[in-house]
Amino acid sequence: MGSLDKRSGSQVVSLDVVETKHLIQSGYVYIDVRTVEEYKKGHVEAEKILNIPYMFNTPEGRVKNPEFLKEVSSFCKENDPLILGCQSGVRSLHATADLLKSGFKNVTNMGGGYLAWTEKGFPINL
């Protein structure tokens, strides 16, 4: 017998930055899950953008933001179309999985992150 995924419907979808750019332009909310410091150095240009860190830098290293789900829920509804991005695509992958597990329905990960976005020469804000 095959094993069933009890979290069915929570499969993370990662799209490349070209596909992501089209979704952002079509009205998706872009959530930059990098730290505030990273965000201030430059971020994806998007009409609807939020900076909600998934992790914080501490003297002991990076720790997960315990308020992440609550913060996203305070700005976004479970059915809102969301795209999550970070520096390289790792943190946003985990953050996307967390949101899907908590009941969000339409969340996509931007594969490659901000690094891939800037490599393509796509617009940024400083």
Automatic annotation (TrEMBL):
It comes from the Eukaryota. GO terms for molecular function: catalytic activity. It comes from Hibiscus syriacus (Rose of Sharon). This is Rhodanese-like domain-containing protein 17. Residues 24-126 form the Rhodanese domain.
